Amino acid sequence: MEIYLDHVKTIVDDLAAVGQPLDDQTVTHYVVNGLGPDFEPFTQMVTKQVDHVSFDALTNLLLTKEHRLQLQVHLQKLESSSRPSLNVATRGHRGGGRTSRGRHSKGRGQNGGCGFERNQHDRSDSSNRPLCKICNKRGHTVIRCHNRFNLSYQPPAPPEAHSAQLDNSFDSAWYIESRASHHISSDASLLTDSGSYNGLDQVMLGNISGLTISAIVNWLSKEINRLESNKMVITGATETQFIVNDGRRGLSNVPLIDSVDNEQIIIPETKSWKNFFAYLGPGFLVSIAYIDPGNFETDLQAGAQYKYELLWIILVASCAALVIQSLAANLGVVTGKHLSEHCRAEYPKVPNFLLWVIAEIAIVACDIPEVIGTAFALNMLFSIPVWCGVLLTGLSTLMFLALQQYGVRKLELFIALLVFTMAGCFLAELGYAKPKSSEILKGLFVPQLKGNGATGLAVSLLGAMVMPHNLFLHSALVLSRRIPRSIHGIKEACRYYTLESAFALTVAFLINVSVISVSGAVCDSSNLNPEDRRSCSDLDLNKASFLLKNVLGNWSSKLFGIALLASGQSSTITGTYAGQYVMQGFLDLRLRPWIRNLLTRSLAIIPSLIVALIGGSSGAGKLIIIASMILSFELPFALIPLLKFTSSKTKMGPYVNSKKVSALTWMIGSLIMGINIYYIVTSFVNLLLHSGLRTPAAVFAGIFGFSGLLIYMAGIIYLVVRKNKEITPLLAMEQAEIGQTCNNSDNQRAIHRREDIASMQLPPTGNATDLD
């Protein structure tokens, strides 16, 4: 094959030298048409591809195919000439020197009939007796060993893993470790002297298929007080495997390194609807952003001023949020990388750095409402001053982050518990307020915008529903699951993550509807005093507590405080994780959760504390509005890359969005971004008109502001127009390029473990440096 391809390359170079160059499509056409009958299936697969294969890629594929054919022929020859030798038990022949039974033989014995000759019993050699792999004693197998289920039994030697091979086998190919013993790890960082491997050798599997070798490493094993260096390889499979090359395959495998981390959430390979429960968790962490204190304040204002009129906005925004969040989850599932990692790989250094700065500012801005909301909740429940509550928020969040020591599942369960606590509190508030169900249904399904300011508030509701940090968070959280890496496995993961997100966002939607309904019912009450009516005209989180207390009773105020505290604390936990993923993805830099939380929380506490000390509760409420404006400003810089990546075949391969889905998502994204830009412009214009600045100062402020707006629009246009250049290698896409689809035998492959993602959520379960 190499000679054939070199000959083709010579002809192509000669033609190019005389001014008649050939493109890759033409060269590929002539190469595949010149192949022999053994390559006929390969030829058909290549010619049917929509995207033409380059000459270099075709060369690699052909050399690999030829290597597989040679190995297959070699194995067939061995199978036809030898029989496998297994570890079996044999029994000796019974001495049967039986004489003829004649009439003249009257006695027994050597000459008598019907007797057995003595000393003819052939005892078999003891080496042919089976050896138990548990107790190392001969005469029985593992299934009959009485120490089989004795956990306290200590064998005289470590358990051994043997392999069955051909009697005259001299094949020195790479053989996959059987995992029959306790000495396998998926952590390549424990190995030493790692080096990339660019050859064509492959690891042969039982079905005569091969795994490409991507790296060769050395490991040290300790056995009988001596160190022994061994060669291993890491295959290009999605699940990291450690392979040992040993011509003496009949010998046992020596224990290598520590066991794999058993804390990872592994999705079962069987097809069952019960797999859905293994995917539950990330959606609840994502849904927190839709029920944070900032959303509560907007909901309270919408209900107080327009009753149930804007409920349909919440319904539309929730559906749009589900579509956008499902794209973020699909990006992580399909590519094995989260959004910020794709940005680092795709964009040059300067745009990548600016995107990171904007994302970090957005996370700090998202943390401000949570700090203030938690401080308000502490004031409602324990009468702690707001400024003091601001200081306490940092300590309380660090305490809740300690839950990660018990695993990601426990943390997800705790967040889900907080979400359902909020739901229970506001459903109880609904029972106190008793709004009219007919008006709630009308507000949900009959769009209307009446009254002054309804449009602006509707814009605020829509803009607040999709948080930029949530897109980074969701695309990373899905990597905590270990899914079967096949076409069916990936599609199942995408489907179940969408259903799981829909379930969590439905709970968040009901909470938002409850807040608006309670606020609308309370402010529409006939027994409001003048002070409460003034509170309804400008309702914020702090005033809502006193309003509920005066109208519905003291317990309603306490329930609101509990829900607000749960919202603030859960939001800060998810914000900390989002910050970790952003920093790790854009800069390839990771910090411990408590350090990351301390930095983010400090940047959020300082302005919150200053405003709380100077402006009090009203100033803190205005700071929440400013933080919402910052989030609206940042949203396009997270949403546009997400839409571009999920609509790109170079990123998603066969799992790219369809044209209808792409059109829908771009329409939703454009609507959300247009609303946010409108919100920013109108807010800036109102600020100029009502700032009280003199005309020259107002003119200079306007020039400065609109210049910044032009730069902002130029950045958005750059992200939209720029074409994706980085190609994400996908296992399923690589198979599709040569016309192979994943069948049932391929469904056993699983996605590689993301140690960086897992370490952000789970602490090490043991000393990773210890070797067996």
Please characterize this protein's 3D structure.
The chain is mainly α and 772 residues long. Among the domains are: 2-81, no CATH class; 165-260, no CATH class; 275-447 and 455-592 and 726-761, Hydantoin permease (Orthogonal Bundle). The protein contains 26 helices and ten strands. It has helices at residues 2-17, 24-33, 40-47, 55-81, 276-279, 282-287, 293-306, 311-335, 339-346, 349-382, 386-401, 408-433, 437-445, 454-465, 468-477, 487-523, 530-537, 541-552, 554-587, 593-634, 636-646, 649-652, 659-689, 695-721, 731-737, 755-761; strands at residues 84-85, 165-166, 174-176, 192-196, 202-204, 210-223, 226-235, 242-244, 265-266, 481-482. The strands form three sheets. It has a five-stranded mixed barrel. A two-stranded antiparallel ribbon has the order 1-2. It has a two-stranded parallel sheet with strand order 9-10. Helix 8 (311-335) packs antiparallel against helix 16 (487-523) and helix 14 (454-465) crosses helix 23. The longest helix is centred in the C-terminal third of the chain and has 42 residues, at 593-634. Mean pLDDT is 72; it is low at 82-125, 161-187, 218-263, 731-753 and 761-772.
